[in-house]
Amino acid sequence: MQQDFKELIQILLEIDNPADMECFLEEILTPSEKKDVILRWKLLKMVHSGMPQRQIASNLRISLCKITRGSKILKNPDSTCKRFLDRGLSEDTK
Fold it and tell me: How far apart are the C-alpha atoms of 10 and 21, rounded to whole Å?
């Protein structure tokens, strides 16, 4: 499984334009998986913006446990997600 994951990472790295990336992700993710990934990213953006966890839970209709996981990710000093958010690649949280 780890080798397959590394192969997928390599494929993602080779995609060099947004249209191909969108197409690839649409093809390999089910609508439910896509929704889950988008929700995870949305909650990470909200936590990063400083929004209170209870407000995030209410807005996204998710459990505090999911938000706590996202918060732990962003508290990790080596977090890649935090690094991208710090760079301002996603400004549309609010």
Answer: 13
> For 13-36, what is each residue's pLDDT tens digit?
999 999 999 999 999 999 999 999
> What CA–CA distance (Å, rounded) separates 73 from 56?
16
pTM of the predicted model as reported, rounded to 2 decimal places: 0.83
What is the token pair recorded at 71? 């918060």
DSSP state letter for 52: -
Residue 93 and residue 45 in contact, taking contact as beta carbons nearer than 8 Å: yes
Phi, psi of 47 (to 5 degrees): -60, -45
Q: Collect all residues with Cβ–Cβ distance below 8 Å to 76 and sequence separation of at least 6.
A: 82
Which domains, ranges and CATH numbers included, belong to the chain? Answer: 2-86 (1.10.1270.10)
